[in-house]
Every structure is written in C-alpha cells, then in structure tokens.
Amino acid sequence: MKDEVEIVVALRNVSKSYKINEHSSVGVRDINFEAKPGELVLFLGPSGSGKTTLLTLIAGLLKPSKGNISLFEKQIETYSNVVLQRLRAERIGFIFQTFLLIDALTSLQNIELVLRFASRSKREAKHIVGKLLRELQIEYLADKLPLTMSQGEKQRVAVARAIANNAELILADEPTASLDATNGSIIIDLLHSYAKKKNKCVIVVSHDLRLKEYADRIIYLEDGRIVN
Amino acid sequence: MLYTIKILLNQPTRLLLTVIGISLCMILMLFLFGIYKGVADGSVEYIKENKVDLWILQRNSTNILRGTSILSAYQKERIKKNENVLEASPVLLLLTTVKNSDKRSTIFLAGYDPVTGLGGPPKIIKGRTIYADNEIVLDNSFALNNGFDVGDNLVILDDTLKVTGLSSGTNAFVIQYAFTTLTEAQSLLGFPGIVTCYLVKVKNSKDVIKTSKELQSLIGGSAVYNHKDFLANNIKEMESGFLPILYAVASLGAIVLTTVLSLILSINILERKKDFAVMKILGAPSGFLPQLIVQQAVFITLISGLMSVLIYFPLVSLIEKLSPEVSTITTPFQIIIVLSVGLVMGMLASVIALSRLRKIYPLEVFYER
Predict the structure, then answer these.
(1) Which residue of B has its CA nearest to A97?
(2) CB of B7 within 8 Å of any CB in chain A?
(3) Contact B177, B107 (CB under 8 A)
(4) Which candidate among A89, A133, A185, B186 keeps its CA 20 to 30 Å from the CA of A125?
(5) What digits encode the pLDDT tens for the residues B79-125?
(6) Prediction pTM value
(7) What's the gap in Å between the CA of A91 and the closest CA on chain B?
(8) Contact between chains at A56 and B363 (C-beta distance less than 8 A)
C-alpha cells in the first residue's frame, strides 16, 4: 500500500459549501495547490477562513462540492470508506489544537492505539513506541495519563502519535494554538525535522505567525480563498 | 479488552454503581428461581416422599394443592380386601387456623394414620412424629415464624395440641403443612365420616395398573392415580399458579437489567463521544468501536454476575432467617441460566447503545475548541 509518491496531495479547483438552514455558506472556494514529500506547507489565515475545512477535505473526512482532490496520487473519490480508514490509520497522522489524547489511556497506550489501528502486532507496537519516545525524549511520559501532563507534554505525545506509523502526510490543525512560545517552537521544530529528515509531507493550518519561519511554503487563506 | 477496561475504570464510581444495579437485577432473578425451586420442591415434597403406589381421590380431583376431594372414610377395609393391596391408609387434608396468643395463622393440616405412617411428614428434623390424637407436627418454618417449638401447646378450634416434632420439605411458601392423627383432623373438621384421599401400597409393582382399574370400579365416584402421574398433576397445578408470576417478575428484572445497562453504555458513549470521534479520525477499523461497546457490556455483566453470586447466598440466608417461610433452593444450573440471561441482555443493551455510536461525527472534534 505504501508506494513512494511524488505528489502527496493535490487540490484542483476545490470548493466546499455547506447548507445551514437552507442558506448556503462557503467553506473554501477554488483551491488549487499541491504538496510534496519533504515539504512543510503552512496555511495561514484568520479564524473562519476555511483552514480546518481544507484540512478535513484533504483527510477525506469531507467531500468537496466542486473540484478534485488527489491523495497519494489517486483521486480521493475512488477510495472506499474502508480504504480511507486504512489510509488514515497507516499513511496519515493527525495533530489537533486541543491534543485530543484519550484521557483513560497513558501516553504509551495512546500511541500504541494508532499502531494497532494500522494492524501492527502488540509486540511490534510496543517496540515502535519505546523507540519513538526515546527519540522524542519523552520516555518519562510513557506511563502518564493525559490529565497529569502539561499542555506542551500532551502535544509532544500527540506528535508522537501522529508520526508513530511513519505517516507520509501529517495534517496539523492549529498545533501551537494552545501552547506557550517555548512549547510552540518545540512542536513546530519536531514537525519540521520530521518533514526534512524523513522526507514526509506536513501540512499545518494555523493563525500563528510564529510558524512562518519553519514553513517551506506559506499559503494565505481568507474567506475560503487563497490570497497569495 | 485493555481499552475497554481502562475506559470503564476511568469512572470507578459509575462502574461500581452500574455493577451494583446489574447485580441486583441478577440477584432478583436468582432469588425468583430459588423461590420457585423452593416452592416447587416444598409443595410436592409431601407427595414425593410418601412413596405409595396409588392415590385415590374423588372423581375430577387431580391434585391436593388446589382441589377438593371428599371420600367416605369407610372404604379402607374394602380397598384392603383387594388381593393385590398391601396397605391402604386414609388422609384428610384441611386448611385450618392455629391460634397462638392473639395471633392466628393458617396451616394445611394433614390427618393421617400414625400406625401405617402413610401420609405423614416426609422428614422430622426435630423431636418425633405423632402417636396420639392431641399431638401435632409442624413445618419448621411455620414453627419458627410463629414462635412454636417442640413441647409447646397450640390451639386449633377448641382443641389443644402438643407440638411433638418439626418437619422439613413441608413449606409450600404460601402455606405450610402440619400433621396430626386422622381422628383429630376429622374431629376438627366436624365430619368424622370423610377423608380426602387414600394412599395405597400394592404387593407387586407389576400389578399397579390392574389394581388401579379394580379400585376405581370398586369405589364409585373416585379417580385413582399412580404415584408418578399424581406427582406430575400436582407439579403442573403448582406451576400453573406460580410460573406466570415468576416469569413476569423475572422478565421485569431482565428488562430493568437491559435498560440500566443500555443507559449506562449510552451515557458512556456520549461522555466519550470526543474519544470515539478521534478514534474514527485516526483510522479505527469499522468494527473496533462497536467491539469496544460490546466488550464493555460483557465486562460489566460478568463482573455483575460474579458479584451477584457472591452477594446472593449470604443475602438469602439472611432473608430466610428473617422470614422462615421463605425457602429457596439454588442450583448451579439456575446460576448458569441467570448468568446466561444476563449476558444475552448485556449484548442486547450494547446493541441498543450502538445506535448512539453511529451518531458520532468525526468532524465535530475539529470544531470543538
């Protein structure tokens, strides 16, 4: 399933509109862009500019109203729900603004869970998590529950969860919005080095201007349109 | 299973309350089955233990639990004249009231012939059986409940009878047996010429059918049953009165169990909505989340089942101590049945709760800040 691709994601004239109380509201319109392995693409824009809609379209969680989305060089509509689920488990990593770790599980178990979703054996999952925690220098968090961790620690565990499967595409939704400057730069550093060292594609949507210096490309969004 | 247990243990108080609720439903079901078995055995133990070959009753009377049978008391010798009859003994059964100080209690009094012993108490657990007219054997739970013991006197109508013994296997839950002489019972009834039935032993068991036919034609207006059929008649009669109630209450218990469990599972799903939505986004296989819910139901049911069994026996012995007329018999088979019903209901509850799972939209997590 994991073939090397030249274009990880490509959007052609993508628009998404929602129907709210019989009124049509536009999420994004006429979006054209593509992202390659080894790139960190930053979508910058104020809230309501369509950043999150864009991210969910790329993840296959929403269908576009118009246009085409290509994911791992295949039209996204050709993927069945089961294949999309497997893609999200095996080839895509997610990072959220509010971390969204499972409260009842320790850091180790949170990371193990996505490896199990990707059909890794328990033993293999344990081995990968141990190695990953060492690499990210967060071994001390292994047995901690999210409720006992700081915001920065939670987001580092969330990054570990996103990259555990060696994901080819990381989709990060406001990854630094809940963090202070120090933790924010630790997180974006981690994502940047993942893109560069592992030659993976990282797409970050944010309104945090501090992230600009880490991005290979910055795309500005306003009212659902690219305004470069 | 790890995630299931972890998620449940994350709310220990709720888990405990749920387990207590489910356990109580299971205890209720165990108790009902125990009562049923206790009543079933208690109701027919008297018949079971009086191992005679034939029971002669008035025509149209099929049992002694819920039927009236009146026969002439002077048929004994005629019955005994049959060449195959080894022993024949009359029994008079009547409902009567025992007076103890200001308290009045009803008993099912069996008047029998102490010489033959047929129709007497199945098992004496304290004291001795009766020898004379002014003596009585009481059911043990009746005695405990009414403060009688061996050596005490009690009053029925104007007669004072001495308690000579206490019996077991004579508690039919709604009524308890007591035993006195046939003469005493007839005197209490005020009609010395009548009995309820005759218990007959034949010389050779091969001749039971033949003797049955001969006795039926000998005594006009009678019905003769062999022991097996008569026991079955009484069991059927007892079940027809008791089983519908048992099924109704047991079904209510099962419904409550299912409702409580599906409610708790639904609340769990709603509370963990975000977790489940995140799992969907992270690529949880389609069967993973339903499996999680089913596992929760199975886990809760099994823990509850274990807890119910642990609580049930001390609880029942306390109830039996407080209310001696309550007599339960619980077998491993009944426990297996209740646990199985609990498990099936648990699965059903999880299926009901699963509809909540389908209403979780992964996108929600992106917009809930």
Answers:
(1) B369
(2) yes
(3) yes
(4) A185
(5) 999 999 999 999 999 999 998 777 889 999 999 999 999 999 989 99
(6) 0.73
(7) 10
(8) yes
